[in-house]
Description:
Elements: E1 2-6, H1 15-25, E2 29-32, H2 41-49, E3 54-57, E4 60-61, H3 67-80, E5 85-90, H4 94-99, H5 109-129, E6 135-136, E7 141-142, E8 161-165, H6 168-177, E9 180-183, H7 189-207, E10 215-223, H8 226-240, H9 246-251, H10 255-266, H11 279-285, E11 286-288, H12 294-302, E12 308-311, H13 321-332
Parallel strand pairs: 1-2, 1-12, 2-3, 3-5, 4-5, 5-8, 8-9, 9-10, 10-11, 10-12
Antiparallel strand pairs: 6-7
Helix pairs in contact: 1-2, 3-5, 5-6, 6-7, 12-13
Amino acid sequence: xxxxxxxxxxxxxxxxxxxxxxxxxxxxxxxxxxxxxxxxxxxxxxxxxxxxxxxxxxxxxxxxxxxxxxxxxxxxxxxxxxxxxxxxxxxxxxxxxxxxxxxxxxxxxxxxxxxxxxxxxxxxxxxxxxxxxxxxxxxxxxxxxxxxxxxxxxxxxxxxxxxxxxxxxxxxxxxxxxxxxxxxxxxxxxxxxxxxxxxxxxxxxxxxxxxxxxxxxxxxxxxxxxxxxxxxxxxxxxxxxxxxxxxxxxxxxxxxxxxxxxxxxxxxxxxxxxxxxxxxxxxxxxxxxxxxxxxxxxxxxxxxxxxxxxxxxxxxxxxxxxxxxxxxxxxxx
Length: 333
């Protein structure tokens, strides 16, 4: 299992130091998010200030960008890092695509993302081989690539693409044509095993691929101290209030709680929401453990299930360094 870390949502000036520290401690990859900042810009700094550390976007919002902009950015980051970049894509929800990014919401989320990935790879194929660009689909018609706009071949053209998702449709799509699936932190072990992994297997079967063709990457909620519990409960409550994430709660019979959380969120009563997260919910969504036993508990939950793992807390050098060192050493053991 690869052990990864997440960048905190801070200014770009902090990225070189964080990246060097993450590599020095022994993390395998460093992931950036699209929350307060652009998720791609840190990649150039990670590439410049590390030697072996992989890095990627977990995630970049696909529907906020064209296939061309995604293809160019990923191509450059793969080239400058000698193939250490992973392109992680997510769809977000309709309200954010339309009202935050000002972009249209597709009739078929899975259909558009499938076509977008195929289009990105069509650009890469043209640049690497010199063959004409000729991609025609329902959402995109891409046939123009003159030499002036062609960056040409690179040494590491096989850029991994990961898809993020909560529900089976995107998991099936990942199995069908992606290199990895980013399982949302809002998951339980039962949901991974009973819903998402079978959907990935269906996609793999559709494309004739084996399970080894795709990596399952997830981020784990953990509670190792009393002060972390309220934060984790609030995050679980926030995600559970999202209507499109409701199937995770429904699997466990918590549909009514999810609906109540949605009602509270719509009225802005955020402070009341964590109280609806029961102890059973907490232990289903989070690994509750002492710091010393955390690696064992994570191993018990994710061994044979996840191929990459990070914790739902950003890596900040100088904070909890002893914890991170012990965590990595014990997880490796």
